[in-house]
Amino acid sequence: MATEFVIMLPDGAKSMDAAVQAADLVESIERDLSVYRPDSEVSKINRLAAQQPVRVSKPTFSLLERAVGLSEQTEGAFDITTGPLIDAWGFTKRSGRKPTAAEVKQALTRVGYQRLVLDRETSSVRFATAGMAINLGAIGKGDALDRMALELQSHGVTDFLIHGGNSSVVAVGDQDPGSSKGWAVGLAHPTKPQRRLAGLWLKNAAIATSGSGKQFFHHRGRRYGHVIDPRTGYPAGDLMSLTLAMGSATDVDAVATALFVAGSQQVRQRYQEDGFSLAIMTRALGQQDSVEVETLGDFDWIETPQADETGTKDAKSSENSIFQLPS
Prior knowledge:
Cofactor: Mg(2+); Mn(2+)
Binding site for Mg(2+): 138, 253, 257
EC number: 2.7.1.180
Enzyme class: transferase
Strand content: 25-35%
Oligomer: single chain
Helix content: 25-40%
Catalytic activity: L-threonyl-[protein] + FAD = FMN-L-threonyl-[protein] + AMP + H(+)
């Protein structure tokens, strides 16, 4: 995952031992799921599963089953078997390149969650096609957050916030215990991560942001982001970023990725249908770093997305709002 996780507790909280135990989970999860560790379970699957079934731990197998279910739910827009496409576009090594149409076509022959054979009885994984590779980057952070949250709750911790790389967040209880406000969460501008786009209160929910603001390259004047549509083999979508809120960090990680690929029209159509209660979409305007922000849902804003620096304190949004922010 190559992600830094942060656990936040209210001032004066006496839950440090539980927080340490929750943080210790990250190492074992990373050891199982990272494609950047040759000894991980995912790396072992990618090496051997085309030749033989590969047995994995129960947590890894459960996550793979959940991933397949989310692929079915999103009609293939989310798919953990995109490894060959990520390789073809150079994003595995974080050095983007424009592949030829033939390279994309060839990679697509090795992509598809339907080719992932899972045997629950033996907790084993097999590839139906040689050359396949899985990558849990679009769901692994959410899984880690959910498991860390369960660990904290098992120790009686009722107020906490955990984030993974700032793009995935779980907020439980209150920042100020008893306030019923939840936790103050800031959303970053899609191309200027040091600039806050908006602020909102979040309670007993998870949010995830999918976008291409950090990993992209330009080829002949066109911008290509790292989020690839597994059905076509090409970066897709009309958004700069998409933030969703749901009850599960694992689910919202996957659904945000799928709907970012599918585009804003699908976000509107699937609003609430797929279990997400809030959505924030940003799309590029004409000027560099200028964005339009569209929201769906009833937000408890700390600062609404807007052009000036003052913000609107403790404002409730309408069901659908559009804001334009200049560069």
